[in-house]
Amino acid sequence: MEARTLSKEKFILEGLNCASCANKIEKQVGELAEVKGSKMNFAMKTLEVEISGDIDKVATKIAKLVDEIEPGVKAKIQGQSSKNEKTLVLQGLGCADCAAKIERKLNKLEEISQAQLNFAAQKLKIKVHYSSQLESAVIETKRIIQQVEPGVGVEEEISGSHDHSNSHSHGDNGNLKAEFIRLGIGSIFFIAALLLKLNLWGELALYGIAYVTIGGKVLARSAKNISRGQIFDENFLMSVATIGAFAIKEFPEGVAVMLFYEVGELFQDIAVNRSRRSIKSLMDIRPDYANLKFDGEVKKVDPNQVEVGDIIVVRPGEKVPLDGEVIEGESMVDTSALTGESVPRKVKEGEELLSGFINKEGLLIVKVSSNFGESTVNKILELVENAASEKAPTENFITKFARYYTPVVVFSALALALLPPLFITDASFSDWLYRALVFLVVSCPCALVVSIPLGFFGGIGAASKRGVLVKGGNYLEALNSVKTVVMDKTGTLTEGTFKVTDVISAEGIDQEELLEIAAKAESNSNHPIAKSILEAYDGEIDNSQFSNYQEIAGHGLKVIVDDKEVLAGNHKLMEREEIEYIMPDKAGTVVHVAVSNKYLGYILISDSIKGDAKEAIKGLRELGIEQIVMLTGDNDRVAKSVADNLGLDDYRAELLPQDKVSEVEKLLTNEDDKLIFVGDGINDAPVLARADIGVAMGGLGSDAAIEAADVVLMKDKPSNLVDAINVAKFTRSVVWQNIIFALGIKGIVLLLGALGLANMWFAVFADVGVALLAVLNAMRITRLKV
């Protein structure tokens, strides 16, 4: 019998915040028969597992086990999700209630682990348990879409391609002109019936023609949906209400209500699609072509056809199509599409150029460093578009609310029609039936289901326009509850560009010699402090003289130079090696140097505070942030100087990376109040993952930043955090305006309808009119100025 090979897989545990649960997960996963070992990294929210057998099946077992131990936590294999998922573009999907039905039906399928329908972007992402199920799942998905909303176009999204086309129609791909002609013809018959003096049958004929012409499509959709068991939708409600009006001989009102409804739906669809376009225009940074240079010729090609190492030409006025290095030329580039920064940036030979920049002046020859799928512009677009799939709690609540709201109102309408005539003396059945019909018209929840996703999507788009990438509506909403902000120092509150400001040598050694020894010791390090020492030293360094290079985390380094042991680091390194040292009286980062256990002196290195750091702290205070804390690995003297200068509430100094995680955990005291950690997105990855909201500074083009953080501040400015919270607060304000407005109007009309004080005109306004106004209100978010 052959031994089964082991496969090592790393699982990402999304939403894991409980350390005790993490230990349980590690233990119970390790006890599975197919698992030979499991190792949990709680700070990074990862689980490394050695699997024997079918990876897909074991992954499903692990995902279920994780969900049982910590409900809501999702376990997925790192880097394998693309094999198990597919994105579909739904062209012509204008009904938000139908979108919710499609999503619900798909999530009930056994082979689908998750279905997320982004109504604002008209995209559906489906994930299956096993990659072998993907093809059949896509076929079944298309069938369900056509069943729920016939006529919606379904296309599979091609990697690296984004189709932004939109259809105006609600479940129909016809053009606006045809719709207006149809409604116009129906309106002529309706006006004729109103003006002409006819008998009952003549009126019925004219009103009937007008009604069928205007509402025929609604009636047909209603009949189809009923045959499929889909009863409680807007087509059914409007059909019953208007047919009921005809039954009680209210012909003019039946036709007028259907006309108002269809015109309102048409304008609502136009408004929704205009909102979609305005949101997407905020991210209209995708290049259409690249000028590929090959064999001395320049040819215009699709960016997807360009490979790493190819040479492209970027002319003045053109978008940079792919990331690369400038190998020839010099120019000013507009970076505002990616960073929101209005001031152009100068680039020259040897510098990095990112896709999405716009070349303003000179001709640039660029060597491509990443293909289009991995380019900065593509990652940013995918991040923003996929962000709307991560629904905020308010969105989830409204989706559930709408699911039960309509049936409750429908059955209330039925009771309103039948019970009063039975129990109230002289009650007219036709009168109470009319009141019930008003109830039916009001019951559609489209105003909420349409406007709220558009609101959050608009908020994410508005934030991206300002150089702030928010990874989901859930994080955008969470920004409203932030009470504590924890910040890293270097590269976050300070520039992160160190300079040697003082060299203090011990007796018997001059400053130049001390600087030379320190430079030699630091020559193999990539740390910013090491680079600053090397910049201060002008001489050449022969690396062949070095051996046994060793970095000591949180202390410094040890290396053999010319057969002598050199120590360079902070005071903890000196204390560890039992070497007496001088403590400087100036603020700054100190590098103590010792050779063969003899102290030679220290080098003082300073880092300047960012220009907008004070403005950021002031802005956070004005937004109601109660506590601002700084965490740093730097010495206490430097930390205190920065904290006092900026007016911070507290600081913690001389911390190792794992110490930052424990300090953040101490500050996570209240589940309702959110904590933000702001760091550089690479060195601070563990604490970014541990915070309620991780914010990466200067994450432009950094894979580590985008992976670890929930929010990325692309301008490298702490004041952008204030912008992000302002966008979040404005988005929440608009969303709640829509909720209160829609529910308020519907509630008032329902009450007036029950009392017989509201007719169907009021009811249609409470349905279509309110939805239209809510969508227009949501569009304000895209025009927000902060």
TrEMBL record:
Cellular compartments annotated: Cell membrane
Membrane topology, from the record: Multi-pass membrane protein
Protein name listed in UniProt: Cd2+/Zn2+-exporting ATPase
Predominant location category: membrane
Domain HMA: 7-74, 84-153
Key words of the record: ATP-binding, Cadmium, Cell membrane, Magnesium, Membrane, Metal-binding, Nucleotide-binding, Phosphoprotein, Translocase, Transmembrane, Transmembrane helix, Zinc
Catalytic activity of the protein: Zn(2+)(in) + ATP + H2O = Zn(2+)(out) + ADP + phosphate + H(+); Cd(2+)(in) + ATP + H2O = Cd(2+)(out) + ADP + phosphate + H(+)
Entry's family note: Belongs to the cation transport ATPase (P-type) (TC 3.A.3) family. Type IB subfamily.
Superkingdom to which the source organism belongs: Bacteria
